[in-house]
Amino acid sequence: MPLNPAVDRVTERIRERSAGTRADYLRRVDEMAARDRGSDRLGCANVAHAFAALPENEKLKVVVERVPNIGIVTAYNDMLSAHATYASYPALLKDEARRHGATAQVAGGVPAMCDGVTQGTPAMDLSLFSRDVIAMGTAVSLSHDVFDGALMLGICDKIVPGLLIGALHFGHLPTVFVPGGPMTSGLSNAEKAKVRELAAQGKVGRAELLESEQKAYHSAGTCTFYGTANSNQMLMEAMGLHVPGAAFVNPGNELREELTREAMRTVLGIVKARRFTPIGRQVDERCIVNAMAALLATGGSTNHLIHWVAVARSAGIRIDWNDFAELSAVVPLLARVYPNGQADVNAFQAAGGPGYVIRELLDAGLMHEDVLTVREGGIREFTREPAEGLKWRDIGVSRDESVVRPATAPFSATGGLKLLTGNLGRSVIKISSVPDDRHLIEGPARIFDTQEALQKAFQSGELEKAARDGGGSLICVVRWQGPQANGMPELHKLTPPLAVLQGKGLRVALVTDGRMSGASGKVPAAIHITPEAMAGGPLALLRDGDVVRLDAEQGQLQALVPHEEWIRREPARVPGAQRAESGVKLGRELFAMMRRNATEAEQGACTWL
Length: 609
Hints:
By secondary structure, this protein is of the alpha/beta class.
């Protein structure tokens, strides 16, 4: 199948826009790759320090016999259920390296916070910037510069983007990402959401809510809804950075250990074969477009409209939200996974999983097939699934068309992502799970400076009254939530109260310069507004009672205020009593430099530029 013209056009536009920066990046990659091996290039004292802790026979191998040495960067901690399984991985990977005449060292560890723990707390102000901390930690780990390849152990929200950004700054190294798999299915995501809405209405108490949450999040492994963590895994498959089909095999499954060992065999295969596929060469504009297509086809996390901009920049590639929007217009929605459907990721895997989606996109001309991957067989290898004995087999037809469908009969002809523009700035909305009759909301604005203030207004009945007074419609605006204001926290805690109002027949929407991630769900939410209020963006001009029009079909986000009045307004100032000034900071003050330096959301909220 020839490449879809829109995919070809977007790719070529990205290539032209990035020509200079990509050329500079590849020149650096080639210069780094052309150097002598670390143990030959470094001074004797440096080499002795690097390998002092290795067993004597391995010191001999790496220095004298010059066998490959693989650096392992791990995001292990047992606070994150997804990452708890990584405790045993370094020993396993080292053992596999030895079996193949190589060595491996844990190059370093990077921090990994759980957004599920920090939602709605001051710690969430650190969350987005933890991505750049992880990238820096990855760079520190690899800066010892004695490695011939690398393995990245990470799964969750900011961790994979951070590891990938860091790895691309060492783009001369062949690199494979190593997942750990999702926990088995517990309480369904739909039932969990129902209990949350009941709790928001005060119809169930803390004990019932806690019981529900613990049934949903019950063991080691990644959470089972299709948020940022599992979107990460889908994108790693689509970019060819995993062992094929490794994303959603559960911990404890017999295949899990073999897939982990295969990751070591894969990176060693690249190094030993002298097949020049370092990660910096592999991740090019076609690879980035493939990731974007896979995200759109699965209704993945809106966080990646920030993260993958930053990832691309790390490889000298420039993408923007126009690129996502143009791709979304031609990439069909092929998967319904919660919150875009009732199935969880285990059901997604059982129905065909990433391999099915990738095959359908390739066959429809919606992904580039001529890309490099960590495997010699290219991206077609990622259309198959691993089976017993680590043999890969064809997936065949969808095993459940309520979960995954062919490109010829999709859930929707488009990817469900829309770019919104207007006098309130640029923003994005994910409509793949928003009811069709809620794609257009027009109503008076009720403005909040914190998410806590909105929650209090809901609990007091103020929001419902305002919506009814506004003819049944209300636009809830939460500003001062961008990267420069407070680190751009996710606002998941707002989903249940707004869903309750929508369930009562009221037409409500959220407008914010903050994030909602993959859990934005059925309530229309215009998010990531750029420029943010803190940077003088137009949200600071909005006043209570202004009529706002959110039109996802036409791509508009507009304050219906006469232009003459709009341009005369003085912007509101960030309240001094914000949480940023409160006594509970949880280390937030250490991130002040990042807030000052952060770029806008559409530029990746990068702090290193």
